[in-house]
User: Fold this.
Amino acid sequence: MMRRLAPLLLALAASASAQEQLIREVTDPKTDTHVEITSLFSEPPSHGYLPVRVTIANRLESNRSVTVSFECNTNGSYRDEGSKMTSSFTFDAPAEKSSDHDILVPLPTAIGGRGTGTSVKTTLSGTLGNSSHTLSGEFAENQPGVLMGEKLYTANALDLSKEAGSHLSTYRGSVTFASRFDARRMPDDWRAYSGYDHVIMTDDEWTTCSPGAKTALLAWIRLGGHLRIYTSTGTATGLNLPVDTSFGSVKVEKTSGGALKLDAPAVVNAILAKGPRSSQLESINNDYNARWPLQDDFGKVGFNYAVFIVILIAFGVVVGPVNLFVFAKTGRRHRLFITTPLISLAASLLLVILILLQDGFGGRGVRVALMEVRPDNSENAAYIHQEQFSRTGVLTGVRFTLQDAAVISPVPIAEDNRWARLTTTNGGGGNGYSANFVDGKLETAGDWFQSRSEQGQILEAVIPTRGRIERATGGGDPSLLSTFDFPIETLLFRDDSKQWWKATNVQPGSRIQPVTITDAEANGIIDIEKGRLGNRNANLLDKVKLRDGSFIATTLKAPAVETYKSIKWQQTRTVITGPVIIP
Assistant:
């Protein structure tokens, strides 16, 4: 009997370990009224979101409520100050009802040198009990984020982590190669995967994923994620995988004799490969802290030290000799208790006025975006990578709402800049952020934007769109039509014979006849646009530029993912890519 039960017990243990139970609070053992909070991935990623499932079983005769709060902290080497992100979720618990709630917990971005870590403290409060638990993850410098299905994880995790440890280093000891998941409980929101570069699973696990999870993974692939599926045959037959993967990739590998054991050195070397597949963590740490084209284009600002030095000298003269021998001379020393505060107040007001005159309110900034538009396969979506840099004056409030389904991460900028508040050497700068979902939109506050500072952020977003480039049917030279609701500055089209075509000043709804250009001319235009992007996004553009039957367009009029409204964005330049559709 025990021999028959052993495989079942092993399977149940494997399934249970694929998620991390954070809290199970039993309010009433007699009715099994409880709250269970489970992380769908075994460890948090270095940025993005952590998917969590909250199960509430209220079998009592009265209504209750539950609040789940999260405090997420990053840390790095001993010099790093780290950063903090807070969020909370409140749920009603009607009497004699049970419910499941899938939530996304916003994470701070782990920034630093040889090793960083993220801790997620979960706190349960409300009328169904109180409890807390902390889940942690550690990352080597520039380590790719990897998600691995439970089957492959169980058979290979130790060997893969050991092999990864021979390539990566951290102050905190051993390296964990991957976080694990249960394919039956994969999230159906692409943002849950945004902190990962690679997802590895078997074909059985892919088949097990729900349609919603597959759609979410497709969006993640479109944005640059890399899916690796292991099969016994080495083919993708019956898996319904995309052929054109936009900025990402899909790779099908054959397992040896159908076994789940992988070649650890080969897998680790493939994951750590440089080039377009460089990790997001490496990009965040390195693409913006030295030469960032967007920051270079914005330019530097000087600081008028002379005026402030003159004011301070004048203040010293007035508050000292003038105050002592004129305003409160001998016999009137008691006036010092009045004149000194008044002089100090006047000097402070003068300094405030000068700061306002020099820096003003709000701020200015520039943005650049790389957008893949997919009207095919009924997707009708735009997959966006946005970089933005801004310089602020005096800010009166720092709250903003992300109206789109997006991920936002602050990035460290060059530290030889007195305006910089976030650099790789301060590992987060002690900044604090909050992010809460309200009616499905992310409301943020904290140090995303700070007064009299320079800061940069990167965003990823998936938004619905009907915009496309269409080609008229029939032979001969192509006739193209733009359905975007903004003009296009330059449009490049590469046909199925690898011939490049170019059109300029393309207006919405107007059919145009492009002219042929050479490969050198097309590459020159593309290289200019690449030069405006950070390294990772430039590599993503490189990946899609030579697709036959596709286009590359540039515009200054496309809408951006909006963040803080007090920033006046002086320019938003967008590079749009995608297939040309024949209606």
